Amino acid sequence: MAKPILKSDPLNPMESSSKDLDPITRAEMELTAGCQEIRFLVERGYLSMAREKFEEIFSKGQQIKNRHLVESAIALLQAYEKNKQYQSVNDFFKQYESALGESQIALTLAGSSCLNLNDYQQAENFLEGAIQKDSSCPDPYLLLGDLYAKSQPDKAAGYYSQYHDLRPSVLGARIFIKRVKSLLKTNSLSFKNLSIAFIGNFTIEPIKDFLEAECFKQSIQPQFYFGGYDQYIQEMADANSGLFQFDPAITFLFLDSQTLSPELFNKFFDIPPEKRFHLAEDKLEQVEALCNKFLDLSKSHLVVSNFLLPSDYYMGVYDSKMESGQKEILDKMNDHLLGQTRSNPQRHHILDAEKVLSNCGKITCANEKMRYLAKMIIPDQALPNMARELMRFVRPVGGKTKKCLVLDLDNTLWGGILGEDGLEGIELGLEPPGNAFYEFQKAVKALQRRGIILAINSKNDPDLVCEAFEKHPDMQLKLSDFACIRTNWNDKAQNLREIADELNLGLNSFVFFDDNPAERLLIRQQMPEVLTVEVPEDYSEYTRTLLNLGVFETLHLTEEDKNRTHLYQTEDKRRRLKNQITDLDGYLKSLKTQVVIQPADSFSIPRVAQLTQRTNQFNLTTRRYSEADIRAFAESKKNRVYFLKSGDRFGDHGIIGACIVRIENDSWELDTFLMSCRVIGRGIENAFLYDICRKASEDRIKNVVGRYFPTRKNQMAEGFYPNAGFKAITDHPQEKVFTLDLEKNSASLPIHIQILQHEN
Q1: What does the pLDDT look like over 415-446, one tens digit per residue?
Q2: Which of 74, 81, 95, 333 is deepest in the core (most CB within 10 A)?
Q3: What architecture is the 404-555 domain classified under in CATH?
Q4: CATH for 191-398?
């Protein structure tokens, strides 16, 4: 290739006389000019000549760590990458790895080239190194996802999720979705299908990409329905509408106050103050009637967005002094919407859209042109945050909420290092900087009160930790708030595995919160199923970060949720007793287990529904039902719904079992039979089945039919019916059917279990 003719640049410092410059300055000017020439050659495709020039400069003893020279090297690497000259990238990087290895961009390019050359081990090393240099860059995560896509799809999905977290744009969402869909085609991931509908009186369709991406992160594969513009009345009132045909699990209703009641804006000053809210109230009562009808006719959860407040008011600051000013009216309208949800709190919810937009900054993210042209009330810039807010409702409906928060101690629950600073030296209290940790502990405590399990995973001295929790006057958390504690010098990944085993929870139920980036990287690498929070360096951001996760949400709080920590603590006492007694029969007898089996009522129905949605391991059919479903079963003469409560010498378990019966002539079919995995293996499941069969006999039922649908998680239940005396009718791989002839056989009651009540 002929060498290009480089025209002189009047601004080039080398064009000026340099006789009087000192040698160091002259060398720096020559280096700058040389780097400019390299980039000039790269831009025009003369890569060989650019490399020759680079090597020429380097051979003169120039330090490659010079910023300009590094940038030139990266430009050359990027050109090789663009031209798919992956071996050239590899060779060049290795030649100058001692210095280029400090550049996150260079490491990423090297990792990408190795990936394309099928050198997976080297690619992993380079890409992990790139993350260590700068964990905020999304590209290495995407490439690591590609690396693990075939061998470890779960790990790949985790890296893809991190990529999208760092690139929350439309393009980033679409790249992420495309990657995950390719994993789903291989049937290597288990995702739950969930139908999500959107209706309202303004445009909301652009949220689809962002919400689909957020769903994929939670192993949810969504199907979407978007109603026509301002067609929500027809959609909600007509049982034959497209909305009802779609049969959504969750429906979002987005309402714009100005579209709902335009006269309140167009003729605001023409309406007497005393009539303004009444005018709005009439419209809100129409909305309420629609919502109630929809909830009666469907099984869907309904989430209604509140009304957005304008960034300013017609009367400015004087609006607050007016009788029935704009803000007062809109506040009353929002209060009215909130009040409407109280009649059906299990399925009717409020989305605080006003909070989301306020947090984003209404002025900075506003797109007034799109608001006028396309009725896009929620601007593009706010859509990623809005999608994350919607997931606070989607996760619990889809059964994908996190159950356990695992916390570090030093520089996480308090400032400083306990072993070095001592009890008096750690930062915790009402004065800064300790007040940030004080507030963080209060936020953690609030999670525990709503049923989230807390655990400690800390490299620390156990005795010092106990002393800190017991004696520090400003400690908001107590050791009794934690269901599991690991304070030792062991590997935190191993500790987390032990915590999961002790609590009998899958790793996808855990959230790991640790200030140490090295520990977070370890958990991400070894346990991609765990949600590892990217903890900010600034401890004052801890509370906001935790509360904004949105992964611990619940749409209904049961008594079992509130007492969950105590339940796990009593379970630990049972486990210790079991370890002390080598004879299993002796251990079971020593527990003095008692059970109560009763028909489901208004108090137990929410918990029964929750069990169907959350129980996986000992769930014979894994059918998921809402509270409305369970209530309908309980009220029907063709069905029976029973729940089981259990307790022993250590305390109550609460409601831990459920059975749904379908009555067919002279048979009872066990549509659902499940038990919490906390109590499996103690015979309680056998006592439950015994009592169900007894109830069937008393109703002169001849046969009890049980079904087993094999899944990846319920293998422990496979032999339950055969072991109880049921005979196999069919043995299809996807459905096994068993029957028990009550005229010839009966289930047996374990001798160590006492049934306190027999009620039909």
Answers
A1: 999 999 999 999 999 999 999 999 999 999 99
A2: 333
A3: 3-Layer(aba) Sandwich (3.40)
A4: 3.40.50.1110
